[in-house]
Amino acid sequence: MVFNAFRRRLLLGCAFFLGLLTPIAAGEISGTLSFEKKPPSVGLAYMADDHGLSKSDNPKLDQKDQQFIQPMVVAPVGAKISFVNSDNTDHNVYAADADAGADFDIGLASPGSEIEQEVTWQDDMVIKVGCKIHPKMRAYVASVDSRYHQVIEFDRTQKTHNFRLEVPASVSVFRLWLPNYEPVEIKIEAGKEATAQLIKKGKIYGSITLKRN
């Protein structure tokens, strides 16, 4: 009897602990982006009211065949990004964004090298990085600290794109970043739908529709 009582308490304690580790009422946001013309190459969707992304993740932005392999990496202020050269030629990575306060140049990166750069610029900004040796190369770095984010790679031959973002019940502020577009912010609760315009240079170039279950 004593053993059975102890076993019940142990099982209840484990269940409670596992409940703490599981996001309460986790759900999903499904989104549809519709463009009137060609979409941009990449976008970023994230929940702006979460700030739990670890500074120790150290994302990597790699270079191969004279292009950046990833179109974008996400890291919070204080984290370090590793710029990797998996190519057989020298590369470089630099940024010069006065609005974000981002100004760095890692210098010459030889084949096989890996150079770290700390995110020291303004929070919640997306900056463009390039290679001075190969001017057509470009990628983006987002100083975002949300765990609930998704980099969206667009097929530029398609005008409609769908995405899904898993989110817990504790967050409700959705943001969308697209290069050269005005940022979009939508507060969306469970069971609701919302639509917003995609605006570039003061003109409407499309729309975004969200549905949260």
Give a description of the structure:
With 213 residues, this protein is mostly beta strands. It has two domains: 25-51 and 146-213, Immunoglobulin-like; 53-145, Immunoglobulin-like (Sandwich). It is built from one helix and 17 strands. It has one helix at residues 2-21, and strands spanning 27-35, 42-47, 60-64, 67-68, 72-74, 80-85, 94-97, 102-105, 114-118, 126-130, 138-142, 149-153, 160-167, 173-177, 184-187, 193-200, 203-212. The protein is globular and about 50 Å long. The protein starts with a helix and ends with a strand. Mean pLDDT is 91; it is low at 1-8 and 10-25.
Concise overview:
9% of the residues lie in helices and 44% in strands.
Output the keywords:
disordered N terminus; mainly beta; 9% helix; 1 helix; 17 strands; four-stranded antiparallel sheet; Immunoglobulin-like; 213 residues; 2 domains
Number of helix segments?
1
* Corresponding CATH architecture of the largest domain: Sandwich
> Low-confidence runs (pLDDT<50, min 5 residues)?
1-8, 10-25
Which CATH class of the largest domain is shown? Mainly Beta
Biggest sheet character: 4 strands, antiparallel
**Percentage of residues in helical conformation:** under 10%
Overall shape: it is globular
Secondary structure tally: strands: 17
Number of domains: 2
In spatial order, strands of the major sheet run: 13-1-17-16
- Percentage beta strand: 35-45%
Mean pLDDT reading:
91
Q: What is the N-to-C order of secondary-structure elements (H for helix, E for strand)?
A: HEEEEEEEEEEEEEEEEE
Radius of gyration: 21 Å
